[in-house]
Structures are given as structure tokens and as C-alpha cells.
């Protein structure tokens, strides 16, 4: 709703800022119906530009992402916009998010035709969008490929994304360490995965199993949900029936975690510790309160969108990243899946997203 | 598991064959499938399957899709189809969990959910009955637009319920049985009485059996069809309350794929897709078969993909069984 159409320049950007930021448009709707906090754009994580903070030459950054039908993707779009607004010389042209691959291709083509200086693309499907990424690169527009990777490096100048395997590893390491601390010998460790057919889910599960395997633990009951709160509740309700006693549980995704927590609450179970995934504000608050089984969440932070826009600006202006010896922006950046616990949650609350 | 027992005898003497489910080989076969599944559950996890908490979990998980399937049974018996049930559950759910609705307390939330469901259902009904739009298309339009509206209203966020009274009531229980199971039983009982013991029910069968004959018999066919879709919508409103209670949140993704699950349950329950014949008991058994199946799979820690294959096999078997029983009945 707060996105402008492709090719249409962001004319009244300053007025847009004053008018209660990006979600202001949403707030018109929110006024009567929505739960979206009216000021949520103002607290989106924003990268510090360091020594690159001085305004450079004016550039236009084009942005295309899938429909914000999930808290994480919504945060991606919001963060990208908030980051762009931080730079006075950057013009930000975002297309309406879509889950239709053909539509996203034509949106990116529109941005290419509008001759934006840099493109930031989170493809709905990396393979399907590879050709149009290539087309942009061939047209001399550097592409920042966000998260879902294109098939060939020819289609992007720089890739930035999360580390699904390490998400699993860090969740597994955390649980293993906690269980060792408690001297549990043969722990029963459950897993609520996301959509099983997606490579990202498979990588998360593999990392989790590998990390547990290092200390001789293994994954016990495992279910696969759909990244929605409803499927999380359904799958977890059955999982808890199948495991009358659990020592630990990892839930891949904090959006579905709302349902997972509801199922745990319904079953009245408290005997195990739980780790979440992705890092929603909701879960971070629960971790802070320390009253539910959830004790930690492993990040897959949508702050990567803020970084992507910051990098796009540097690429457009021909600068390198401050503090690195490189003259140029690197070709690949993988974000780190930090473990957020009660002890460090305050440091990470700013990247927590509304699920 | 009282649902697997032979149905009560007093239902037998009713005049039409379709009410005589005790004698219907299709329903007996279906009940047999459910019994076999329960035995498999008991055999593979004897210490867990027939426990109070597992049975209660199965019934709670069956509740929302069960209520939706009750409405779907009405629609399919009347000769139509409703593809929009899942979207209506999603829309009613996010509408009842918006900040504005929540700030007026639990009653407004409940009424809002029911009103949105009923309203969408009536829109479907009016389009089908008065606008002469094919049910498949009319409800396909609702399927898309209701989901879209749900996304817009919620801002595509999961809206957590803050109202503790709402949660306490719907997540609580009465006489040791969860509220959701009571609601499910209530909707099912009311649906059964309406379908089998009232003029409205008889007209639903009649309209689905032969629409022209029904009109000649003096039934206001258009109004009746509109109301049938209204019933389906209202059921979706009730299901939305259940899903919100279960997950403690309204999300535009609530009710995903309910249309497929509900149609599958109704069809394997012996209701003809062409209308005119069907039974709610069959639908109930159909819903329970799927819920028990997924429970058994999770209890035994089996992959969901195998579960989907099993689902498909059960659907085909049930329909084949139906076909044979139908042939035997007509003597062809």
C-alpha cells in the first residue's frame, strides 16, 4: 500500500517523510482496522554509514521484492525504504511487491527502462528472475541480489543474504550447550520446520542436525509447517501429543512461532526449552520476559535490506566500504545468524520485526 | 471415539433413503476406514493414542475444518460449490482481531467475525442465485478478493489477540471439554437437525436434486440458494473464531487450503458433487479421517509428504467405494 508504482519517481519525498513516514499511507487504513503501529517505519533498523555518511552524487535506487505477505518480507521492504530515506541524495523507486514471477520481471524491466542507477532485487524465485537480473547487468545497471540468489553471478554485482545452514547450526549449538549445562544425557529434541520443499528449510534442518550430531545428540520428533501461525499451531499440537516429554524444541520461523507458542500454551507444557528463528519483536519480547519455554531465537534478520540499500548507494557512487581495505564493495556478503538470548536481547531489539 | 459407532437407530425410519445412513454401505465403509486408522494409531503408539489429551487434541484440530465442512455440505448438496471458505475464514479472522474491534471487547469481536462470514457468504449466494454466476466462478472471485481484503486490513501482519476475555472463553473449557469441541458439536448438531428435520433441509436436497422441479413445486429457489451460501459463510465466521482462539492471532493466512480439505471431506463422506444427495455424518467421518491421519503420522514422526500420498489414496478409495455402492443401489 505504501509503495509507489514502477517508473513513477518519488516526487514528494520530503513531504512523505514528514507525513509520518512510509507507513503513513498504511495508517489511513490502520486508523480504523489495522494493528500496524503507526510509527513502525521510524524504528526500522538503519545501517550506520560511517565515514561514507557524507552525501555523494545524487542517484536513483530501484527496488523490487515479493508481496509483503509475511512479517519478514514486510520488514524487508520497510527497512529498505527507511534506509533510503536516510540519504538525502538518494531517490528510491520501489515497485509494488508481487508473488507473480512474470509481474516481477516486468517490474524490473520497467526499472531498467527508467534508467535507475542501481537495482536491489529480492526475487520471488531466484532461478526465474535470473534472466532479468542479467538483462539489468548487461544494461550497465549494477544489481544487488538480496537473499534468494540468482543462478549465475553474471546476474548480480553483489549478493547479500542470510545463512540458513548456520541458523540451524547456531540453534543446535545453543540447545546442545544448554542441555549439557543441565546434564541431560539422552535428550529428546523436537523440530518444527518450515515448508519442507524449500531449499532454505532443508539447509536449516541440515545445520541443526549436524550441530546436534557433533555432541552425539539427534533430532527426535520433527514436523513441517507452512510459515503461518495456523500451521505452526496445528503441527505443534500433534507434535506435543507424540512427545509426552521434550527436552528442547527448535521452531524455524517466528511468524509461525505465534501458533507454536499457542499450542505449547494450550498443552500446558513447560518442561523444555525452545529456540525460535528469524528474530521477530514478538519473540524477542517473550525471551526478555523469560516466562515461556522460548529462551532464544537465531537471527535471519531483515536488516539485510537496510544493508543492501546502503551498499547500492556505495555502488552507485563508486565508493568502497569504510574500514575494509578493498576499493570496491565485495561481491558477496552473508549475514550472521546470531543467537539472541535474555542476556543480549536489548542489543538486538532494533532489528526485531513485527510478525 | 463415539463417532465411529453405528449411528443411532431412531434416524432410520425416516422416509428417504438418504437419511438411512445406518444401512448405507458407503458410510459403513467410511466408518470402517476411521476405525482401522484408530487401530493403527493405537497399535503404533499404544501409550499415547487413546489418551484424553490426544483425543481432545484431535477433536480441537478437527473443529475449525469440521465447521467449515458442515457449511460446505449444505452448499454441495444444493448442487453448488464454495471455493472461498478458506479466504472467508482468513478475512473474518483478521477483521475480528483488528485493534478497533478488539478495543470494544470480546462480544464485538465475536459478532464481527460472524457478520463478516455471513456477509461474504450472502454475497456469494446473491451472485450465484440472482446474478446467475456459476458457483465455481462466483466463489472463485470471493476466494481471491476476500484473501486480498484480509491482507489489506491486516497489513499482512499476524494480529495477536490482546483481549484476555476472548482468549479465556474460547481457549477454555466446560465440564473438562474444550470450548472448541463444544462449539464443533453444537454446529454439527444444529446442522444435522436443519438438514434432516426441517423444511430448509428438505428444500436444500430438492434444489440440488432437480432445480426446475423445485421451482415448479413452489420453492423460492433463488432465495433458498442465497441462504445456503449464507449458511456456509456463517460457518466460516465460526471457524474463524476457532482458528483465532487456537493460534491466539488473526492472520490473512488463516484458513489456507480449507476449501480443498472441506471439499475432500464432504466428497469422501458420500455427498454427490452433482448435488441432491449427501450426509453430514459422512462429512464428519471424512473430517475425522484426515485429522486422525495427520495425528498418527506426527505421533510416529513420519514425513508429511508420505502423509499427503496417504490422503490422496484415501480420497480415491473412498470415491471408488462410493461409485460401487451407487451402482449396487441402482442395480445397474
From TrEMBL, chain A:
Single annotated GO MF: carbohydrate binding
InterPro entries to which the protein is assigned, alphabetical: Peripla_BP_I, SBP_2_dom, TAT_signal
Periplasmic binding protein domain: residues covered: 61-319
Any one GO cellular component localisation term in the record: cell envelope
Source superkingdom: Bacteria
Localization of this protein: Cell envelope
Keywords: Signal, Sugar transport, Transport
SUPFAM superfamilies, A to Z: Periplasmic binding protein-like I
Principal subcellular localization: other
Pfam families xref list: Peripla_BP_4 (PF13407)
Annotated family: Belongs to the bacterial solute-binding protein 2 family.
Descriptive protein name: Periplasmic substrate-binding component of ABC-type sugar transport system
UniProtKB/TrEMBL annotation, chain B:
Keyword ATP-binding set for record: no
Annotated keywords: Cell membrane, Membrane, Sugar transport, Transmembrane, Transmembrane helix, Transport
Keyword Transport listed: yes
Gene Ontology CC, one term: plasma membrane
Annotated membrane topology: Multi-pass membrane protein
Transmembrane segment boundaries: 27-45, 57-77, 107-130, 174-195, 225-244, 280-297, 309-326
GO molecular function, one term: transmembrane transporter activity
InterPro entries cross-referenced by the UniProt entry: ABC_transp_permease
Subcellular location field: Cell membrane
Protein's UniProt name: Permease component of ABC-type sugar transport system
Source organism: Amycolatopsis mediterranei (strain U-32)
Originating gene: rbsC
Amino acid at each position: 500500500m505504501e509503495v509507489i508504482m514502477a517508473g513513477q519517481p518519488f516526487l514528494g519525498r520530503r513531504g512523505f517523510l514528514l507525513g509520518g513516514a512510509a507507513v503513513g499511507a498504511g495508517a489511513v487504513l490502520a486508523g480504523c482496522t489495522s494493528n500496524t503501529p503507526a510509527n513502525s517505519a521510524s524504528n526500522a533498523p538503519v545501517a550506520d554509514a560511517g565515514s561514507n555518511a557524507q552525501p555523494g552524487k545524487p542517484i536513483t535506487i530501484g527496488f523490487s521484492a515479493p508481496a509483503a505477505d509475511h512479517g519478514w518480507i514486510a520488514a524487508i521492504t520497510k527497512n529498505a525504504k527507511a534506509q533510503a530515506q536516510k540519504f538525502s541524495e538518494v531517490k528510491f523507486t520501489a515497485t509494488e511487491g508481487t508473488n507473480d514471477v512474470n509481474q516481477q520481471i516486468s517490474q524490473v524491466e520497467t526499472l531498467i527502462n527508467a534508467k535507475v542507477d542501481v537495482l536491489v532485487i529480492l526475487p520471488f524465485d531466484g532461478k526465474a528472475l535470473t534472466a532479468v537480473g542479467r538483462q539489468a547487468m548487461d544494461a550497465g545497471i549494477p544489481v544487488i541480489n538480496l537473499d534468494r540468489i540468482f543462478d549465475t553471478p553474471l546476474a548480480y554485482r553483489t549478493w547479500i543474504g542470510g545463512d540458513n545452514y548456520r541458523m540451524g547450526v547456531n540453534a543446535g549449538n545453543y540447545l546442545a550447550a544448554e542441555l549439557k549445562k543441565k546434564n541431560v544425557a539422552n535428550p529428546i529434541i523436537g523440530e518444527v520446520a518450515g515448508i519442507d520443499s524449500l531449499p532454505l528449510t532443508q539447509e536449516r534442518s541440515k545445520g541443526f542436525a549436524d550441530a546436534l550430531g557433533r555432541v552425539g545428540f539427534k533430532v527426535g520428533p520433527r514436523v513441517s509447517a507452512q510459515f503461518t501461525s495456523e500451521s505452526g499451531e496445528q503441527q505443534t499440537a500433534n507434535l506435543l501429543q507424540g512427545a509426552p516429554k521434550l527436552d528442547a524444541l527448535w521452531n524455524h520461523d517466528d511468524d509461525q512461532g505465534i501458533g507454536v507458542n499457542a499450542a505449547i500454551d494450550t498443552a500446558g507444557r513447560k518442561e523444555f526449552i525452545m529456540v525460535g528463528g528469524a528474530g521477530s519483536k514478538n519473540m524477542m519480547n517473550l525471551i526478555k520476559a523469560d516466562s515461556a519455554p522460548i529462551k532464544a531465537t537465531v537471527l535471519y534478520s531483515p536488516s539485510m535490506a537496510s544493508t543492501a540499500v546502503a551498499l547500492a548507494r556505495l555502488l552507485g557512487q563508486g565508493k568502497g566500504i569504510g574500514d575494509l581495505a578493498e576499493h570496491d564493495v565485495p561481491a558477496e556478503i552473508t549475514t550472521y545468524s546470531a543467537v539472541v538470548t535474555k542476556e543480549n536481547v536489548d542489543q538486538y531489539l532494533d532489528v526485531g520485526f513485527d510478525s | 471415539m463415539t463417532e465411529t459407532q453405528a449411528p443411532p437407530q431412531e434416524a432410520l425410519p425416516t422416509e428417504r433413503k438418504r437419511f438411512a445412513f445406518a444401512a448405507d454401505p458407503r458410510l459403513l465403509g467410511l466408518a470402517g476406514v476411521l476405525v482401522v486408522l484408530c487401530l493403527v494409531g493405537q497399535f503404533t503408539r499404544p501409550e499415547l493414542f487413546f489418551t484424553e489429551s490426544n483425543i481432545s487434541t484431535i477433536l480441537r484440530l478437527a473443529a475449525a475444518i469440521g465447521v467449515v465442512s458442515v457449511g460446505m455440505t449444505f452448499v454441495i448438496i444444493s448442487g453448488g460449490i464454495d471455493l472461498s471458505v478458506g479466504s472467508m475464514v482468513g478475512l473474518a479472522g483478521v477483521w475480528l482481531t483488528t485493534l478497533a474491534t478488539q478495543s470494544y471487547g470480546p462480544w464485538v469481536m465475536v459478532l464481527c467475525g460472524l457478520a463478516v462470514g455471513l456477509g461474504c457468504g450472502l454475497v456469494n449466494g446473491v451472485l450465484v442465485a440472482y446474478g446467475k454466476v456459476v458457483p465455481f466462478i462466483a466463489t472463485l472471485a470471493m476466494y481471491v478478493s476476500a484473501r486480498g481484503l484480509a491482507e489489506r486490513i491486516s497489513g499482512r501482519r499476524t494480529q495477536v489477540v490482546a483481549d484476555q476475555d476472548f482468549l479465556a472463553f474460547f481457549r477454555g473449557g466446560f465440564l473438562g471439554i474444550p470450548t472448541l469441541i463444544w462449539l464443533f458439536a453444537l454446529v454439527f448438531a444444529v446442522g444435522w437437525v436443519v438438514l434432516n428435520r426441517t423444511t430448509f433441509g428438505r428444500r436444500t436436497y430438492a434444489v440440488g436434486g432437480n432445480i426446475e422441479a423445485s421451482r415448479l413445486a413452489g420453492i423460492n429457489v433463488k432465495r433458498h440458494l442465497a441462504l445456503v451460501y449464507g449458511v456456509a459463510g456463517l460457518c466460516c465466521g465460526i471457524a474463524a473464531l476457532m482458528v483465532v482462539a487456537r493460534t491466539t492471532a488473526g492472520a490473512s493466512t488463516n484458513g489456507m487450503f480449507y476449501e480443498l480439505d472441506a471439499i475432500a471431506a464432504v466428497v469422501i463422506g458420500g455427498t454427490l458433487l452433482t448435488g441432491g444427495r449427501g450426509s453430514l455424518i459422512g462429512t464428519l467421518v471424512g473430517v475425522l479421517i484426515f485429522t486422525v491421519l495427520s495425528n498418527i503420522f506426527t505421533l510416529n514422526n513420519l514425513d508429511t509428504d508420505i502423509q499427503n500420498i496417504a490422503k490422496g489414496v484415501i480420497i480415491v478409495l473412498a470415491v471408488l467405494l462410493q461409485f460401487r455402492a451407487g451402482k449396487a443401489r441402482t442395480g445397474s
